[in-house]
């Protein structure tokens, strides 16, 4: 008998399973193909085999009903409907069979679907209903079929942005579709979309002249005049003529004009179609508008929009030189002013419209007009990079040489001349041209700044060099502005090292400003180290000069938190001076809490110890101030005080060197000699405790310092204190034990004679007297110490359990020995003795833990 292995059985069943899956997949594809071909027998056979295959989709998400609609197969559609198929099934794009039928122009399938309940108002993913799609694809025949079912179609239905089918016909210029929509389906041509546009606006905006004519004809047939249709305002106040001008379509504009649209109609921003056409440079449209409506021309040329700009302004703003010339020939005011007092010439110059500027000058525009900022055309030409040579030539050719000379040195509302703007903007050619034309080189604005000041401020090396090479260059190099700043001051303040070098080479003097600051002060305030090095290399005496407040460069750099400048000044061995407020540089770093500035000083390689030893009225000790205000900075100081050998830890040469100078906090006078103030023991560590700087206390330097102090004298004081306390403990124990001898059986139920005998024995015991005195002395001394601590710490002193235990111990000890001192014995004395013994031994344990 032949045996079959289990693995072979598994493989055979796997083949059968995968074969069934392949047959099922093939059957699904055949169902869709049968729907496409219209073979009803095959379709029926496949459906009967598995009815669920009716919902099977292809890669586009389309089922058999979609393919039947696309191929116009009525028999398949009838079969699907008769067997309960969904005629509104959607594909992956949201299209129903009606959408597919319209897309493939399947008229019979479309009619059948509409007859049998398919929904024509369903929107696909593009928010298109059947009517929208038919119009967009310009399916005239499809629309004619749909007209048969007008009772089932909503002509007012909106799609994307609320656009109706008529909007789409206007956008795509499908005039026949528009005619059918209005005539047969009754679409309202006055229904706006969500953006506020009517179909006629869409037609005008998209240059759909044919559809626009259909819309106007339909309006006339309904009793509305063309003028009414052409006067509709959209959400922005545009009439169709505005939209037509926006589109740039000549025919659409002509149709609007012939239909009665006025070229003087203003939208919400008061601009007319002429404004729009001039801004776009559509000269043919402008000529058309003026040609068809000559009576409106003068009004349009003078009309102003919300910015009080005329059409000439709009043309000049966008450098439409041809339209500018045409408008002036038609009578436009060449010197009209807008809301900012700009003439077309000034507006063209501010927009770099140099062709228009040239045309306006040739046509006689007034070159002396100023805008609201009192800037003339020369200011604007310089600001926006115009060619001054060509500009001057045009003015000269227009016989305006005197006007040109006046323009050269005119000031705006800030007092700046054209040369100021050329110097600030770095326009070297403009500077050369202005100097050649005779511009004044030492003119100043209302802040007292000359063009040379501007060049120094913005680092214009070539312009500064050009100004210094002028005839008056030697006279302007040391001129100061309203704050007493010379060009050298300003260049140093802004860190333009190359310009500073130029000034120094030309012999600039080291003046002070109104605050008494020299160029090095300003460079330090701004943190420009290269400029500081340059100034120091030429004039080293500037390093320790003071301003009017006795501030040095180091003070000013610290006030502005410039750590790099501070480090450089310290490397240059600047003096650590005090200003008029008796403050040093480190005082300002601590006061303003500038960690960068403080860190650069207290961790300096060679000057750190000198800075840490400074003393002022505000901060008598830098160490204590850093611990209180900047613990992170002091932690860096501690790190710097630990030096490790540059070798392995297991090497014999390895060492760790600790410097405790930062923890000793010496109180020194400003001159460096030791003061007369009595130093506080361990001031730095006590400050860490007071301010809760646990991370500083846990630092290896602090731990090593405490260890050193312990080994030096701490352990001896501790042993002495422990010895002193041991005497107290022995005294308490001895006194209590002697007291218990007379209290045998733990009872006071004895006769009066016996009690008297005990009292006499205790009173006459010299030993107990001595012990009691010793206890009193200890309690008195320690009570005084605890009182001092309470005075220093306040109520938080009582929050420490150790202090509470000590107070209870002293009270119980006094209660224990007080009757003995008065030669009497009381009942509570035994209880007090018990408490005292317990607390005294408990305190010993606490002392041993320290």
TrEMBL record:
One of its GO terms (cellular component) is transmembrane transporter complex. The chain crosses the membrane at residues 716-742, 762-781, 802-822. GO terms for molecular function: transmembrane transporter activity. The keyword Transport applies. This is Transient receptor potential cation channel subfamily A member 1. The keyword Repeat applies. Keywords: ANK repeat, Glycoprotein, Ion channel, Ion transport, Membrane, Receptor, Repeat, Sensory transduction, Transmembrane, Transmembrane helix, Transport. One of its GO terms (biological process) is monoatomic ion transmembrane transport. InterPro entries: Ankyrin_rpt, Ankyrin_rpt-contain_sf, TRP_cation_channel. ANK repeats lie at residues 60-92, 93-125, 161-183, 236-268, 307-339, 340-372, 414-446, 447-479, 483-515, 515-535.
């Amino acid at each position: 008998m032949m045996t079959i292995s289990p693995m072979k059985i598994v493989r055979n069943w796997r083949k059968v399973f995968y074969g069934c899956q392949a047959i099922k997949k093939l059957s699904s594809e055949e169902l869709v193909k049968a729907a496409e071909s219209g073979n009803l027998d095959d379709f029926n056979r496949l459906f009967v085999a598995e009815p669920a295959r009716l919902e099977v989709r292809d890669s586009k998400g389309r089922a058999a009903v979609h393919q039947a609609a696309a191929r116009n197969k009525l028999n398949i559609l009838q079969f699907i409907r008769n067997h309960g198929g969904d005629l509104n099934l959607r594909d992956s794009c949201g299209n129903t069979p009606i959408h597919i039928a319209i897309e493939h122009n399947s008229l019979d399938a479309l009619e059948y679907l509409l007859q049998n309940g398919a929904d024509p108002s369903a929107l696909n993913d593009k928010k298109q209903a059947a009517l929208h799609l038919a119009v967009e694809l310009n399916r005239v025949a499809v629309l004619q079929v749909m007209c048969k079912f007008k009772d089932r179609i909503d002509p007012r239905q909106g799609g994307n942005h609320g656009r109706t089918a008529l909007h789409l016909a206007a956008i795509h210029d499908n005039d026949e579709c528009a005619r059918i929509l209005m005539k047969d389906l009754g679409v309202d041509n006055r229904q706006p979309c969500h953006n506020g546009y009517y179909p006629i606006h869409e037609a005008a905006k998209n240059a759909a002249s044919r559809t626009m004519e259909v819309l106007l004809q339909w309006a006339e047939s309904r009793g509305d005049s063309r003028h009414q249709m052409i006067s509709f305002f959209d959400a922005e106040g545009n009439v169709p003529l505005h939209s037509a001008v926006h589109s740039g379509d000549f025919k659409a504009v002509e149709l609007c004009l012939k239909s009665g649209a006025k070229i003087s109609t203003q939208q919400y921003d008061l601009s007319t179609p002429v404004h729009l056409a001039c801004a776009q440079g559509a000269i043919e449209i402008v000529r058309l508008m003026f040609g068809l409506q000559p009576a409106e021309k003068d009004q349009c040329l003078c009309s102003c929009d919300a910015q009080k700009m005329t059409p000439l302004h709009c043309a000049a703003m966008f450098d439409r030189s041809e339209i500018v010339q045409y408008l002036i020939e038609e009578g436009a005011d060449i010197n009209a002013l807008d809301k900012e007092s700009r003439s077309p010439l000034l507006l063209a110059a501010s927009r770099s419209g140099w062709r228009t500027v040239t045309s306006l000058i040739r046509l006689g525009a007034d070159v002396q007009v100023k805008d609201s900022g009192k800037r003339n055309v020369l200011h604007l030409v310089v600001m926006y990079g115009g060619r001054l040579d060509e500009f001057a030539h045009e003015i000269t050719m227009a016989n305006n040489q005197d006007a040109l000379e006046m323009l050269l040195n005119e000031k705006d509302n800030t007092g700046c001349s054209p040369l100021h703007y050329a110097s600030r903007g770095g326009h070297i050619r403009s500077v050369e041209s202005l100097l050649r034309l005779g511009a004044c080189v030492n003119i100043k604005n209302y802040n007292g700044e000359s063009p040379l000041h501007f060049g120094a401020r913005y680092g214009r090396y070539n312009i500064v060099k050009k100004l210094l090479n002028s005839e008056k260059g030697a006279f302007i190099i040391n001129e100061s502005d309203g704050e007493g700043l010379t060009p050298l001051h300003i260049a140093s303040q802004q860190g333009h090292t190359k310009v500073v070098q130029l000034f120094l080479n030309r012999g600039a003097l080291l003046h002070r400003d109104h605050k008494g600051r020299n160029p090095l002060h300003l460079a330090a305030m701004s943190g420009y180290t290269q400029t500081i090095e340059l100034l120091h290399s030429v004039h080293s005496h500037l390093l320790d000069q003071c301003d009017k407040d006795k501030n040095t460069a180091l003070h000013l750099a610290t006030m502005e938190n410039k750590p790099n400048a501070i480090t450089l000044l310290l490397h240059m061995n600047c003096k650590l001076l005090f200003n008029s407020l008796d403050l040093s540089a480190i005082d300002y770093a601590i006061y303003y809490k500038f960690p960068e500035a403080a860190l650069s000083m207290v961790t300096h390689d060679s000057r750190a110890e000198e800075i840490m030893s400074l003393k002022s009225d505000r901060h008598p000790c830098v160490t204590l101030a850093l611990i209180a205000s900047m613990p992170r900075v002091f932690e860096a100081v501690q790190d710097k005080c630990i030096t490790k050998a540059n070798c392995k830890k297991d090497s014999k040469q390895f060492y760790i060197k600790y410097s405790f100078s930062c923890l000793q906090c010496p109180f020194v006078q400003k001159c460096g000699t030791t003061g007369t103030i009595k130093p506080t023991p361990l001031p730095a560590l006590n400050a860490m405790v007071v301010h809760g700087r646990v991370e500083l206390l846990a630092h290896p330097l602090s731990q090593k310092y405490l260890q050193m102090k312990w080994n030096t004298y701490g352990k001896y004081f501790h042993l002495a204190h422990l010895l002193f306390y041991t005497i107290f403990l022995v005294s308490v124990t001895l006194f209590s034990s002697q007291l218990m001898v007379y209290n045998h059986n733990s009872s006071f139920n004895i006769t009066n004679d016996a009690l008297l005998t005990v009292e006499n024995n205790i009173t006459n015991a010299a030993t107990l007297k001595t012990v009691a005195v010793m206890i009193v002395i200890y309690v008195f001394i320690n009570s005084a110490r605890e009182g001092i601590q309470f005075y220093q710490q306040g109520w938080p002193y009582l929050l420490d359990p150790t202090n509470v235990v000590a107070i209870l111990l002293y009270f119980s000890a006094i209660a224990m020995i007080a009757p003995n001192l008065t030669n009497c014995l009381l009942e509570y004395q035994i209880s007090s003795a018990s408490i005292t013994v317990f607390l005294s031994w408990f305190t010993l344990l606490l002392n041993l833990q320290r």
